[in-house]
TrEMBL record:
<dbReference type="GO" id="GO:0005829">
    <property type="term" value="C:cytosol"/>
</dbReference>
<dbReference type="InterPro" id="IPR015424">
    <property type="entry name" value="PyrdxlP-dep_Trfase"/>
</dbReference>
<dbReference type="InterPro" id="IPR049704">
    <property type="entry name" value="Aminotrans_3_PPA_site"/>
</dbReference>
<dbReference type="InterPro" id="IPR015422">
    <property type="entry name" value="PyrdxlP-dep_Trfase_small"/>
</dbReference>
<protein>
    <submittedName>
        <fullName>Aspartate aminotransferase family protein</fullName>
    </submittedName>
</protein>
<dbReference type="GO" id="GO:0008483">
    <property type="term" value="F:transaminase activity"/>
</dbReference>
<keyword id="KW-0808">Transferase</keyword>
<comment type="similarity">
    <text>Belongs to the class-III pyridoxal-phosphate-dependent aminotransferase family.</text>
</comment>
<dbReference type="InterPro" id="IPR005814">
    <property type="entry name" value="Aminotrans_3"/>
</dbReference>
<dbReference type="Pfam" id="PF00202">
    <property type="entry name" value="Aminotran_3"/>
</dbReference>
<dbReference type="GO" id="GO:0030170">
    <property type="term" value="F:pyridoxal phosphate binding"/>
</dbReference>
<dbReference type="InterPro" id="IPR015421">
    <property type="entry name" value="PyrdxlP-dep_Trfase_major"/>
</dbReference>
<keyword id="KW-0032">Aminotransferase</keyword>
<keyword id="KW-0663">Pyridoxal phosphate</keyword>
Length: 464
């Protein structure tokens, strides 16, 4: 990691930031009372802040930096692209070499029936594209009444109007009168949080939650529903790994009722679950697939929608122009970053590594945290995992006021040199896919130390 040049003081940045920078998903008054942490550099799985701290990034940024920080291959590819052709659009019957090559490369690693990609700039834009494309598809199929959508409570699909409406986050819905009309939500397959006390086995619970889809289809009418959208593993909702029974039942129901199945692969795509896509891991055959994040490892913003032959053939044959697109759809720099990123993943066999080597290694280490007195469950698939904070283990008792203990734990963790994220009282991790065995050991040791410190803190406060 080379030292950044011309840095001003942490205080200077905090002042500028507090006065002028409105942060996403942030209580600005609360942030400005203490000041933002200033990150100045990163390499591999390590972040460096303006105070010189070295912090292990257990979250790959925001689930996106698959190939790790500081990869010269991506920097060089983007630099070359910016020199050759920094921008041109992909509207008006134009393309450029990187867009064509990246479209081919990305479809080559996707499930065989997905042979086209529509480029966007983010996961949210991808899901807005899904909304419009699914509706156009049903118009082309002469079924114009099929316009509504079913998604899940506690799912996350982005922050635009459609993204937040597909999402099942009540706090987001509360703030701007969402969801928009015609978007319905069913329960999530969250065994630890909602299934444990039902008396069902995980598989029974998974099937029961999937059947809520059938109940909702009956209620709204299959003739009125365009698609069901869900994440293979719910990420921002707390790394909800569904029981094995869940996805086969969802797939069966979608096919039976002729509902498009949309996999939001924004987090699960590009190796996170130990296969190229979460759909491969769970045996899902999506009609549309939203992608972003790992697509470029976050080096340049990019997203996309992968389109099955079923949908593409009909829309291409019948719709004429699809009146949809973004100025930066297929941006040359993003495509160049994506190509270099994919090349690294293939040359270093990162997906196979997550499936066969570092994934199983890390899963075993992470599971060992389950013996900690504050951890009710430690789960992980590929390199995406969660640890559930509990007040008591037998019987399991959660903390009152969900989120307070999680936030405290997150703050202790960063102080302790590890970025973990808190979703309520669920601690989540998704480190870069290049993490080494030694770094996995370090990550888990730091997590354990964080939980120990949390226990001390809670004992002092009389909260345990
Ligand atoms: N879908 C999923 C599953 C996500 O996790 C996210 C982002 N965390 C999005 C969509 C939205 O992506 P973006 O923030 O790039 O708009």
């Amino acid at each position: 990691m080379t030292a950044p040049v011309n840095l001003r003081s942490t205080e200077d940045y905090r002042k500028m930031d507090a006065a002028h920078h409105w942060h996403p998903f942030t209580d600005t008054a609360e942030l400005n009372a203490k000041g933002a942490r200033v990150f100045t550099g990163a390499e591999g799985v390590w972040l460096r802040d303006s105070e010189g701290n070295r912090i292990l990034d257990g979250m790959a940024g925001l689930w996106c930096v698959a190939v790790g920080y500081g990869r010269p291959e991506i920097v060089e590819a983007v630099t070359r692209q910016l020199q050759d052709l920094p921008y041109y659009n992909t509207f008006f019957q134009c393309t450029h070499p990187s867009a064509a090559e990246f479209a081919e490369a990305v479809t080559a690693v996707a499930p065989a029936h997905l042979n086209r990609v529509f480029f966007t700039n983010s996961g949210s834009e991808s899901n807005d594209t899904v909304f419009r494309l699914a509706r156009v598809y049903w118009d082309c199929m002469d079924k114009p009444s099929k316009k509504q959508f079913i998604a899940r409570r506690n799912g996350y699909h982005g922050s635009t109007v459609v993204g937040a409406s597909f999402g099942g986050m009540s706090a987001m819905h509360g703030q701007s009168d969402l969801p928009i009309e015609g978007i319905h939500h069913i329960g999530q397959p969250y065994w630890f949080g909602e299934g444990r006390e039902t008396g069902m086995t995980p598989d029974e619970f998974g099937r029961a939650r999937a059947r809520e889809l059938e109940d909702k289809i009956r209620e709204v009418g299959a003739d009125n529903i365009a698609a069901f959208i869900a994440e293979p593993i719910q990420g921002a909702g707390g790394v909800v790994i569904p029981p094995a029974s869940y996805w086969p039942e969802i797939s069966r129901i979608c096919r039976k009722h002729d509902i498009l199945l949309v996999a939001d692969e924004v987090i699960c795509g590009f190796g996170r679950t130990g296969n190229w896509f979460g759909s491969d891991t769970f045996g899902i055959e999506p009609d549309l697939m939203s992608i972003a994040k790992g697509m470029t490892s976050g080096y340049v913003p990019m997203g996309g929608v992968m389109i099955s032959d079923r949908v593409a053939d009909v829309v291409i044959a019948k719709a004429g122009e699809f009146y949809h697109g973004y100025t930066y759809s297929g941006h040359p720099a993003a495509c160049a970053a994506g190509l270099a990123n994919l090349r690294i993943m293939q040359e270093e066999k990162l997906v196979e590594r997550v499936r066969d080597d570092i994934g199983p290694y890390m899963q075993a280490k992470w599971a060992s945290l389950g013996d900690h007195p504050l951890i009710g469950e430690a789960r992980m698939t590929g390199l995406i995992g969660a640890a559930e904070l509990v007040r008591r283990k037998e019987p399991i008792e959660r903390f009152p006021d969900a989120g307070t203990t999680g936030t405290l734990c997150r703050n202790l963790s960063v102080e302790n040199g590890l970025v973990m994220r808190a979703v309520g009282d669920t601690m989540v991790i998704a480190p870069p896919l290049v993490i080494s065995r030694e770094e996995c050991d370090e990550l888990v040791a730091r997590a354990r130390k964080t939980f120990d410190r949390l226990a001390d803190h809670l004992t002092r406060e009389g909260a345990l």
